[in-house]
Amino acid sequence: MLGFALPQYGASARADIARFASAAEEMGADSLWVGDRLIAAVDPSVGYPGSDTIPEQFRAGFDPFIALALAAAVTERVTLGASVLVAPWYQPVMLARQLTAIDVASGGRLRPGLGIGWSPEEFTAAGAPFRRRGAQLDEMLDALESIWTTNPAAHDGEHWTLPPSWIDLKPAQRPRPPIYLSALTPAALERVGQRADGWLPVAVVPDFVMPDVLTMQRQTIDDAARAAGRDPADIHTAVRINVSEGATPDTVAEAVRVLADGGYPDVFVDLMYVAEDTDDYLRWAERLLA
Length: 290
Description:
single chain; 9 helices; flavoprotein; FMN; monooxygenase
């Protein structure tokens, strides 16, 4: 299965998201995805992973919830994913309401992915504490479970409180949309095995396409799932392929084949670093799907 990140960042962060979503589905894409960037700090204390700076593309970013809503409105078949929403930035009841609306509007096609973020400056801008982000994610999962599967719903935790409340509008998917988590460290991988419905690892073309590394990480997930009394086969994997400058459609296509042969056939491709505008996104998508 082959999907694409929506043209959400940089020069493509304009109103062409709907046009790309509709055309990509018509060409045969299986999924469409968004990310979650709030600001691009001028003097970041922590750079984008693997560097000490923030990519220029992050200076312009389209809101992920509106992007998903636009894609939902012009498509009928593709799944709609987030890789990932930074969970601690949001109040659980607000996040649940937005995701519920997208799942209902799309007829149950949402794959919400959650993570803990990495930029202290973004947390400052969001008014959220940077420390104990893993604990905040765990509490968010508890709160979403309550909001989506019980009525009246309630939550009383360390970071957020929801008094007993009637929340009649539930997601189209029952009992709730499948929750994906990003994970790299052992603790985060174990959380996937214990709690998630899916895992969102990353490959980079041309620098890092290694199914054997993913399989080593996946073993931690599977072991944690068994220890929690869960079937590892119930935890899906969708690999994000970040395409770096200098890559070509042929090298990306080869990466897709390598990942599929290594046991990871469900991938989506992020073109923000190589596509200049929506038309360029569409040319890449057409070439890869062919």
